Amino acid sequence: SVFGYDPTECYSGRSPLEAASMGVELAPGDVAFRLNFVWLEAHYGKLYMGDFSAGHISTEEAKLLIETLQEELGGDEFNFYPGVSYRHLMVWKNGKDQLTFTPPHDISTYSIEGNLPQGDGAEALLDLTNSAQMLLNNHPVNNQRVAEQKLPANSIWFWGHGRKPVMETYQQLYDLTGAVISAVDLIRGIGVNAGLEIIEVPGATGYLDTNYRGKAEYAVKALQKSDFVYVHVEAPDEAGHGGLLKEKIAAIESFDRDVVGTIIENIPEIGDCRILITPDHPTPVEKRTHTSDPVPYILYDSRQDYESQATCYSEAEAKRCGIVVPGHSLLSELISDRD
Fold first, then answer.
1. Annotated domain spans of the chain
2. Quick one: which of 31, 69, 218, 292 has the fewest CB in 10 Å?
3. What is the CATH code of the structural domain delimited by 170-335?
């Protein structure tokens, strides 16, 4: 919704957007699924979601696992596509979509019992998962990870399914040119559907070690030819899912210093501009999953001098100010009064 689209009107699932980022064209009957590599932990005869990211498996390792799944299980019905780290894609040709799933990060450390796919087509996906588990067991990639005392990717986990969405581009909606900077396929996929340029930044990992400053520097360059740039940083969200307080604080500080700070420093080069700073959702460290609480935002206009009611940027201060707006309306505020 931060991109300005009303999810109730055009959102069909996260995975079709990720497919667009990967360059995977979905046919009308295709259903896309997010495929996580996960580590399931056996304990007293039950399986638990030990780690929803398989120890943040590297993109290179995961690609080898996806290649094995495609070679052994892919074909006329199911196909597997590599993404980044633990986040990948499976497409079910002429597949079922009346299904319910539990995101793996919602059940960290909990039993998977009662959280498996349900609905028409669930049995086929469970069979596919079981077949994948057999292939992943003793796979050279996992054997090496265990030898290095890393968590193996011993299972796949489907969720976030949907069919290809119908979305108007920014050019059609706002007569805007723009770009997206993100290491996350979901965000990049929204950009693709919005007709925005996808900018690759060296060292952008989608994790805590991402190239914060590089993202800001590339954004400054992009604004020399584009009206709008969306800069996304995933690190605070990943730290929240991991329950990592110190790492989340460090990620927010890095974002503030190296992304926001770098862009502010370059306003003389950028020229008159507006800047919107906001999370797209909360991921509290205590809960380790997303919540529906409102998030604070800042809207800055370099052409205006004004006093704010807020004394700092925080959820508590935003609540005190009492301004609450739908997320998809923020873009209109950002681009209003364009010269």
1. 7-162, 170-335
2. 292
3. 3.40.720.10
